[in-house]
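G., before I forget:
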Amino acid sequence: MKLSKGVAIVGVGMTRFHHKTHAEKTSREIFVEAALEAVDSVDNGIQLGDVEALFVGNFSSDAFEKQGHTAALMADWLGLTPKASTRIEDACASSGVALNMGVFAIASGAYDVVLVGGVEKMRGLGTEEVTDTLAMAADGLYEVGAGFTFPGLYAALATAHFDRYGSNWEQLASIAIKNHHNGALNPKAHFQSEIMDTAIRRGERRGMAFKDEIDFLSSSLNPVIAYPLRLFDCCPISDGAAVVLLASEEIARRFTDTPVYIKGIGQASDTMALHDRADLTMLRATRLAALEAYRMAGVEACDIDVADVHDCFTIAEVLATEDLGFFPEGEGGKAACEGRTALDGDVPVNPDGGLKAKGHPVGATGTAMAYEMYKQLRGEAGKRQVDDVKNGLSHNVGASGATAVVQIYGR
Amino acid sequence: MEGFTVKAFHDFLRENKIMGSRCKDCEGVNLPPRPVCPVCGGRDLEWVEIRGKGVVEAYTVITVPLTKMSNRCPYAVGVVKMDGGPSVSGLILGVTEGDDVSVGSRVVAEFVKEGDETVLCFRQT
Ligand SMILES: [Zn+2]
């Protein structure tokens, strides 16, 4: 795959991802907030009217808010009618795929400026209803019908990985600890507290004391959701939106002296049901999407300086860091345990806290990853800034890997 | 014979039969059945009965359930590789703790009646 012209990000915006902040708002207000922040972030200024088309990632405003036709709604509330607006639904990869579609729309020559965003307002429903809605992203008849929940599918992948490679839950816990640490440095994150601080706070309320994070994470205060995954192995249920503004390479420097180029993109699909896959210790779609993106960008896994990967569950970060080629098969958990994915490690992963701590309003996650890469490549990531970033990567997965999308960013 | 549909699969389950589709071109077997062979694209298919024994490839024990399952928590569900054939998802009955079963455990199919429906489940042997 080859693009006929280059595409750059010239502005980004996102709301905080949170379960309460947006309680009084609907997805249209959350999306507008992120879009206006993106417009205001453009160094040399941009007018909303410069936007020629919108691509909106959204998983299920239909089920969460009883509202369909999401993209036109966002165009309407931004005052962007009659510009073309298109909704993209690929489960949790919706806005990661929307980003690729935005890149295609510019690379085709059709447009010069495109707005790509993602939004999800999930907290209007209770936990069981959210569980039902998220399960719609799996094979409804043959997986959910058989009794699988969405966390259950990743839990099953974990048992297969543990069995083949001898990986273990303590390695997963180290990922949660790292991502909460990073989230504590990110003012947009859902959770902004170290796990040990949470352990002390929650322990005090119940007269319990914990000697370290693992002691807390192994306790009854961290209940099993789907064995072997516990509460702190799962991303929270959040509301939020994230928006990026794309421009063709010819005009990108009109808007900023430091655009961030999307140098490579890839996307792949796999069977909906886990039971139809030959190997349950990896996500094939991630591997194929990454291969395509690396080729287009002309880089290899070892050239990536920072990455946002799809850690909807801690095991998903293990799989991602292996499938993206950062670590050999079976060694993703060990690498995390050794601090190799920490902010000061060989390849910092999820400096923004990841889905785990930053939150995962499913349709907004892909563009929120692009937001983070834009900040990291421009050296604007504040306390969570990774040193000397030349190449960034984002990796967004739909459900249990039936969709995967990868982008590579450079200056 | 009717098409290789969801309904046909469920109708066979009511007769305590696990039926998949076999591609006459490449002999690939799919469970549940499909109208197109995902391996070779073949459309010349036949029904094949899958014997009800297999091995657990991956599993979980669920404690935060779907609403329809909330009355039976905790419960185990897994991916089972059927002997000599494809894999399928199903409940693993009699398991309420993660340590009660393992990847590699042998299981046998059990046809559980729920109202009009028959659900394909498994139990350790
Ligand atoms: Zn075939």
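The longest helix of chain A spans residues 150-165. The first strand of chain A starts at residue 7 and ends at 14.

More on Monday.
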